[in-house]
Amino acid sequence: MSNQDNKSLTVDSANVSKCPFNHGEFDFNQLNSERLTHDFEAVKEETFTSAHEEYKELRQSCPVAHSESYAGFWALFKHQDVVNVLKDPKTFVTSVQNVVPKVSTTGRRPPLHLDPPEHTPYRRTLDPFFTDEKMKELEPLIRETTVNLLQPFIDAGGGDICTEFSHQLPGYVFAKFFNLATELSMKIREVTKLYVKALNVMDKPMIQQKSLELYDIARTIIQMRKDEPMDPTVDVTSAFLQRTYKGEPLPDELILGTIRQLIVVGMIAPVVFIGSVSVHLAQNPDIQDQLRNDTSLIPAAIEEYLRLFTPYRGFARTPTEDVVIGGRLIKKDEPIAVVFASANRDEDIFPNSDQFILHRPNIKEHVAFGMGPHQCPGAPLARMMLGITLQELLGRTKNIELGEGKIQMAPFPEWGPVSLPLKVVKA
């Protein structure tokens, strides 16, 4: 089949890139020459606003961009391009590379590292643990944990909300989700903390070392459930151990990878998201008061905050064939970052996209949790955890403002603060 015959080599005329080499009508030879430009630098120090300012410019001038950072990758900044890729898992797979930068070197971790239909039994095992009924069962435990961690921060008049609160919260929550003893949950928290720190500075030897330690913890959890099985309807590890697919148990190494993935997957996003929301509240005391005075608005606020401060920006897909998106030729096996954080501020979809607006009529179009077969299964747990945090933070304070010191931002693939000084006045 010639390149011209390839069905994926099509141009969306409504979204033709304005990058220098792409002017006028579609010309394959032109697309193929000097493709791999350096349109933006992904590795740099950022402020709280700088990335979104850059993404806004890229959406207008170069919505399908290439960067030489992280050994080279493509990035999609428009909402429609991101959605089109997420809805086409046959052409754009996750099994080659699921995030930019590529850091997974220690084994396959379902369901994220697998493509349909191979990933399906893992999702079918996992999804029942995130039903509304399950969330209602977990809610009192998560609220108690949130209050216990948050109150010392408030009593002290503030501090670094990321290091003193939000870095700790996911570890405790996931310990309850996995039915783990406190001692083991604290070990997970400490190893994960170092793993995340290594990711933030791209210390690859340390990333690999801590990843392997997390695998050891996953082995411990699995062995515990083999020695003392639990009801598979209440314990996720037991559920995976008892799941069969085509009459056979799931492979041991993939169960291991799944548990390893689950104990980490929700550790980073809440940290940066809570930091981002805290910055916005500190800068907007009127919104603080509005949400304090009417807590029924908090679920709507969480959705708008998820759109506005999407914590992920570099989830990746890899094309299985040459494709043209927005007038740019992307060849088979070249990594593509689907930039959720930019897509959710696309002015074509969300008017006044940089503004916080409660009850947007199309808020459900945001892709903070992805879309398609790899949409985040833990979204209900995340929404509940974040909603409880916002309710308790506002309900236990009279005022929130920025403290002295620098806001430290996360690098790819996350977006948001990993260190944020706050001052709070206790209610």
The helix count comes to: 16
Q: How many distinct beta strands?
A: 14
Give the termini separation: 69 Å
> Structural class, judged by helices and strands?
alpha+beta
- In spatial order, strands of the major sheet run 1-2-10-7-3
Contiguous low-pLDDT stretches (5 residues minimum) are 1-26
Helix content: 40-55%
How large, in whole angstroms, is the Cα Rg? 22 Å
Averaging pLDDT over every residue, what do you get?
Answer: 88
Shape descriptor = globular
Q: Strand percentage, roughly?
A: 5-15%
Q: Write down the secondary-structure element order.
A: HHEEHEHHEHHHHHEEHHHHEEEEHHEEEE
Largest sheet descriptor: 5 strands, mixed
Describe the structure.
The protein is of the alpha+beta class and 427 residues long. The chain has 16 helices and 14 strands. The chain has helices at 28-32, 50-61, 79-86, 120-126, 132-155, 161-166, 169-177, 182-201, 204-227, 236-242, 252-265, 269-283, 285-293, 298-308, 340-343, 379-395, and strands at residues 64-67, 73-76, 92-93, 158-160, 244-245, 248-249, 316-319, 323-325, 328-330, 336-338, 397-402, 408-409, 417-419, 421-426. Strand 8 and strand 9 (328-330) form a beta hairpin. It is globular, with a radius of gyration of 22 Å. It starts with 27 loop residues before the first helix and ends with a strand. The model is unreliable at 1-26 (pLDDT under 50).
